[in-house]
Design goal:
The structure holds two protein chains of two kinds. Chain A has two domains: 165 residues, no CATH class; 106 residues, no CATH class. Helices cover 10% and strands 58% of the residues of chain A. In chain A, the strands form two sheets. In chain A, strands 2-1-5-7-9-12-14-16-18-20 form a ten-stranded mixed beta sheet. In chain A, strands 3, 4, 6, 8, 10, 11, 13, 15, 17 and 19 form a ten-stranded mixed beta sheet that branches. Chain A is globular and about 55 Å long. Chain B has a single domain, classed as Rossmann fold (3-Layer(aba) Sandwich). A six-stranded mixed beta sheet of chain B has the order 6-7-8-3-9-10, sandwiched between helices. Chain B has a four-stranded antiparallel beta sheet with strand order 2-1-4-5, with helices on one face. Chain B is globular, with a radius of gyration of 19 Å. The termini of chain B are far apart. The chains are: A mainly beta, B alpha/beta. Chains A and B meet through helix 2 and helix 3 of A and helix 2 and helix 3 of B.
Chain lengths: 305, 241
């Protein structure tokens, strides 16, 4: 790996070198390296680009890293990664895509990640997207996440896209069985002429299952954001979706919430708030000695922390 | 010393909120009181730089600060505790107190500021200063921030508002301690007799003007006389009573 690739790796996975344990590292459209462990098997797909990750039932306190780095301009790829998480697992998966585009061609990574969690499995999934480079080419990322949670399965999904992604269209679809829980926390910041669209669609099918989807975003300059969420309550269940956006400059933010109760005991809530930074927040921090710009950075930084 | 020279404030060009206010404040602990809507909070905000006066001058230790921004005034030694503390999504108590101190501070130091206002540090340092905190908790954190700043002038806008009786007793203690520990000037806007009672001097604002500025005992005597006159006028007491 060169220094640019190392920096991308640091940004998306908080690591400096090839990770320890189970991993798959993809650089510039090719598999750079992978490693399986006793409990976690990573198998390259033969019919299409991507990998299958099989996690043995009962695996606990282990992690899988699957970063993707693009440092050549003009690369476009579509990758399929399927995660099969066995019963009673308790693991962490860290994914992420970093693009450094120093040229004039558009760089594009579309990852289709499918998660199949067996009964009682527990997963924390962390996904970071980061773009850099001073070329004219755009950094484009279009991740699709599909989640199937079996009985009592629990999944926490944290996604963040803070810098340098010109265009993104993120889609997350989930189907939950009895007592399953899905928590999603999304952080997005857009600058310049960037565009970000995120769509969540959750089917609460099992009795007493629940979901909590929180999206916090900041839109600056001339950027545009669109947040779409749809929660279908098809059983005794609880669903909560929240879109909270700070809008600045000439940005535009649109939130399209939809909650659909198809069962008398489905309890669904949607909250959406879009607004500029409250003047009193700026004044309070300025009264502590911060300049207006520092106060703004502090508020945005805290909001997206 | 804080000096206000001919401060007036007419936000809409018609209604005067403050009329030609002249004050020289050099005492350690000054309470500002007066009826609702008399202009007390406006005066506090003008001192902190949040509101610009329509006319007049403000001097801090002889330096004209009239045109200084909120930030510049903060850097020049003015602290301001809001009547209604602000909430921040994602910013923790620890972060706000660190920002107030203006430097990295130890957990022990944060702990001391929070303990001072009756909050257990380990329960609060990592809490976000958001809607999960009650109004009373926010007020205490607001005061802890002013303590962490330790500036030469601290202005509190109705610190007792929204505080329950139990906390109020502690609040008096907090201000007593602050008075003993700090060398700066404390200005408190308050309606509470027990807060006025610990002040050196009291300023009475009425109808946007300084109605009185004197030693606490003189003001109290004056207020008692006014009350007695009112009760006589309303027939509550006889002339002999």
């Amino acid at each position: 790996m060169d220094n640019i690739q190392k920096e991308l790796l640091r940004q998306v996975a908080d690591i400096h070198e090839v990770p320890e344990g189970a991993y798959s590292l993809r650089i510039n459209g090719k598999l750079h390296g992978k490693n399986s462990t006793e409990n976690i098997q990573i198998v390259t797909k033969e019919d299409k680009p991507g990998i299958d990750i099989y996690i043995k039932a009962g695996t606990k306190n282990e992690s899988v890293h699957i970063p993707v780095l693009l440092s050549q301009t003009g690369i476009k790829e579509l990758v399929y990664n399927d995660f099969h998480v066995g019963e009673d697992c308790d693991i962490v998966i860290v994914a992420g895509c970093g693009i450094h585009n120093g040229g004039s061609g558009d760089s594009e990574h579309s990852g289709i990640h499918s998660f199949y969690l067996a009964k009682n499995a527990k997963l924390k999934y962390i996904e970071k997207h980061y773009g850099a480079g001073d070329g004219n080419g755009k950094n484009v990322m279009n991740p699709t996440t599909y989640v199937e949670l079996a009985e009592n399965a629990y999944m926490e999904m944290e996604t963040a896209q803070i810098k340098g992604v010109d265009s993104t269209d993120r889609t997350t679809r989930a189907v939950l069985a009895e007592n399953a829980v899905l928590k999603v926390s999304e952080k997005i910041m857009t600058h310049g002429e960037q565009y970000a669209k995120t769509t969540f669609e959750v089917d609460l099918n099992g009795e007493n299952c629940g979901t909590h989807v929180i999206s916090r975003s900041v839109a600056c300059d001339n950027s545009k954001q669109l947040f779409v969420s749809l929660i279908n309550g098809n059983n005794v269940c609880s669903g909560h979706t929240e879109c909270d956006a700070i809008i600045m400059d000439n940005a535009r933010v649109e939130a399209v919430p939809k909650i659909s109760a198809n069962h008398a005991e489905a309890s669904l809530i949607h909250e959406a708030a879009i607004g500029k930074i409250a003047g009193e927040q700026l004044v309070k921090l300025m009264s502590l000695g911060l300049t207006e710009k520092e106060a703004e950075e502090e508020i945005v930084g805290g909001f997206l922390k | 010393m804080l000096e206000l020279r001919n401060i007036s404030y007419t936000p809409d060009g018609v209604h005067m909120i403050l009329k030609n206010v002249n004050l020289k404040i050099s005492d350690r602990f000054v309470a500002v009181t007066g009826p609702n809507g008399s202009g007390k909070s406006t005066l506090a905000k003008i001192i902190a730089g949040i509101i610009a006066p329509t006319s007049g001058q403000i001097l801090l230790d002889g330096v004209d600060i009239t045109d200084m921004s909120v930030t510049e005034r903060a850097k020049n030694g003015i602290s301001f505790a809001f009547q209604q503390p602000v909430r921040f999504k994602g910013i923790t108590v620890k972060r706000l107190i660190t920002l107030a101190a203006g430097r990295e501070i130890s957990f022990a130091e944060i702990c001391s500021y929070l303990s001072e206002v009756g909050l257990c540090a380990k329960d609060y340092v990592d809490r976000e200063v958001d809607a999960s905190l009650s109004g009373g908790e926010l007020k205490r954190i607001e005061i802890a921030m002013i303590n962490a700043r330790g500036t030469k002038l601290s202005v509190f806008d109705e610190p007792e508002a929204g505080i329950d009786l139990w906390s109020f007793n502690n609040l008096i203690k907090v201000f007593r301690n602050m008075y003993e520990r700090t060398k700066g000037t404390i200005i408190i806007i308050s309606h509470q007799e027990r807060i006025l009672d610990i002040a050196d001097k009291i300023i009475v604002i009425d109808g946007g003007e300084v109605a009185n500025y004197a030693d606490k005992d003189d003001i109290f005597q004056h207020l008692i006389n006014v009350r007695s006159t009112c009760r006589k006028a309303s027939g509550e007491v006889t002339v002999n009573g």
